[in-house]
Amino acid sequence: MSKPKVAFYWCASCGGCEEAVVDLAEEILQVVEAVEIAFWPVALDFKREDVERLADGELVATFINGAIRTSEQAEMAHLLRAKSQILIAFGSCSHTGGVPGLANLYDREEILRYVYEEAPSVINPQRVRPEERIEVDEGMLTLPSFWGAVQTLDQTVEVDYYLPGCPPPVGLIRSALQALLSGNLPPKGSVLAPDVALCAECPRKPTKPERLALKELKRPHQVLIDPETCLLAQGLLCLGPATRSGCGAACITGNMPCTGCLGPTSRVLDGGAKALSAVASILDATGEAEIERILEGIPDPVGLFYRYSLPASLLYRRVGNGERAREGRSS
Amino acid sequence: MSERPVAGDKGFEPRIVAFFCNWCTYTAADLAGTARMAYAPNVRIIRLMCSGRLDPQFVLAAFRHGADGVLIGGCHPGDCHYQEGNYKALRRYLLLKRLLREMGIEEERLRLVWISASEGDRVQKVANEFTETIRRLGPLRLAPRPGMIRLPAAAQPEPQPAAREGVLP
Q1: Which of A143, A148, A273, A319 has the highest Cβ tally under 10 A?
Q2: Which residues span the domain enclosing A38?
Q3: Four-way CATH pick for B16-143: 3.40.1800, 2.60.40, 3.30.450, 3.40.50
C-alpha cells in the first residue's frame, strides 16, 4: 500500500513556518517514513504541474502557511484545496493574517509607491513599477496581481484545521501530525491548540497579583526585566491573558512579553478588541487626563493588539486609505 | 452599503447603536420616554447591566454590521452601581478611540456620556446631538471583509459576514 501523500506550501510568509517543520529535528524522519511528501517547493524540487497531475482529494493533508495577497497565492490555495482531503492553515499568517496582515493599514498604491519610489534605499527616477503584463521582444511576460488587501487562508478557501503560532510551536505540530496519522481528529474547524489562555501554563503565574493595577506602561527596551515576576505586574504589556496557550510560554521564558501570535481562544470574536479590553481594565487610573497619560505608553494600538490578526479582525483594514494616500502620511 | 447616500444627502439616516447601563442612562432613557420627550429615532438602545460590561468587541461588531456611530452611556463618576464599572468603561473607551483613529475611523463616531437616572432631558439632547454629528460625518464606509469560508461540521451554515454587511435586521 502506498503511503499517504502530504503537501506543504507557502504564500505571504517569511519562511519561519518551514523552519518550524525542520525544528521537528530527527522526528521529521519518522514523518517522512509515514507519509510521502508530494509537494514542498521550499525544500524539494516540485513544480505546480506536479500538483495539477494529482487526482482531486489525492493529498491526505496539505499545510499552507502565509497570508493571501496575490492572485498566484489564491490560485495555489484553490488548487491545493481541491487536491486535499484536509487543509490546514499553518501559522499565524494563514490563520489570522499575521505580520503581513498589518499591510491592511495601507492601501495598494501607498505600498507600491513607497517600495518602488520613496524607500530610502530606492533609486528609481523613471518610477518604474512592476506591470502585470508587459510585451517584450521575446513575447508577453506576466506577473501575478498584487491585491488591495491581505486576507487569511479561510477567507480564500475552506480550511479544516488551524495550527496557530508564529511559527507554530513544535509540540503543537507534533501532536497535530500524530492526530492526523492516527485519524483521531477533532471536529472540523478546530484550532489545534489548547483552548485556554496562556496565563494557565505560564511559569510566572504564582507571582501574578490578585489585582493588577498599572500606573505606567513600560516597553521591554526601557527596563531591566525581572525574570521571575509576572510581566504585567512589572508594567510590561504581556498579551498572555488574551492569547491561547500551547507554546509553553516560550517568549515569557525568554524574558519577553507575549505578543499574541497564537490568537485568541474559541470564545472570542475579535482577539485584538479582547486584548485591548484586558489591558484597559488593569490600568490604575480613573481620571481622563491620567488615563490618557498612561495610554501614551501604547503608541501603536493596532500594532500591539492586532500584530498577527488585522485581516481576521472585525475592522479588517484601515478605512479611507485612498484619502490618506492623497494627503500624504499624517501620523 | 456602497449604495448608501453620502454625508449631507437628504436620504442619509444615521444608524446609531447605543449601549446604556441599566441603572442610570437606560433609566434616564425610560424617563425620557414616559415624559414624552421626543428624540432622534436613529438611536437603537441596547441595555447592559453596567457600562463596564461594554466589551470593545460590541463596538467593533456594531460598526462592522452597519452602525455609523456608537454611543455609550453610564453612571456619573462615583455613582456606578458596581463601584467602578464606569471607570473601566472610560479606560476602554479612551483606548478604543486611539485604535479607531489608527484605523482611519473618525473619533466622533464613538462617544461616551455620563447620564444619571433623572436626566431624561439629557438623553434627548445627547441623542439628537450625536445623530446630527453622525449625519454630518456621513455613512461609515468600512471596507467589506471577505466572507469567512469556515463551516464547523456540526453548525448550520450561517450567513456569511460579507452578505450581512451593512444590513441591520
Answers
A1: A273
A2: 5-97+151-182
A3: 3.40.50
The phi, psi pair for A217, rounded to 5°, reads: -105, 135
Shortest distance, CA B31 to any CA of chain A (angstroms): 28
Contact B91 A285 (CB under 8 A): yes
Give the max Cα distance, chain B: 51
Q: Is residue A310 part of a domain?
A: no
Q: What is the pLDDT of residues A285-309, one digit of tens each?
A: 999 999 999 999 999 999 999 999 9
Nearest CA in chain B to A291: B91
Q: Considering only CB atoms, which chain A residues are within 8 Å of B57? A: 268-270, 273-274, 277, 314
A315/B140 CB distance under 8 A = no
Are B153 and A187 inside 8 Å of each other by CB?
A: yes
Gyration radius from chain B CA atoms: 17
In the predicted model, is pLDDT for residue B156 greater than 80? no
Average pLDDT (B22-42) is 96
pLDDT of residue A329: 36
- Beta carbons of A274 and B143 less than 8 Å apart: no
Q: Is A159 on the interface with B (CB under 8 A)?
A: yes
Length of chain A: 331
ipTM over 0.90: yes
3 state SS of A6: strand
pLDDT digits (tens, 9 = 90+) for A191-248: 999 999 999 999 999 999 999 999 999 999 999 999 999 999 999 999 999 999 999 9
Average pLDDT of the segment spanning A31-54 = 93
Query: How close is the nearest chain A Cα to the Cα of B89, in Å?
Result: 8
The pLDDT value given to residue A167? 96
> Are A292 and B153 in contact (CB < 8 Å)?
no
Mutate to test the interface with B, among A314, A317, A324 (most CBs of B within 10 A): A314
Q: What is the pLDDT of residue B8?
A: 58
B163 touches chain A (CB under 8 A): no
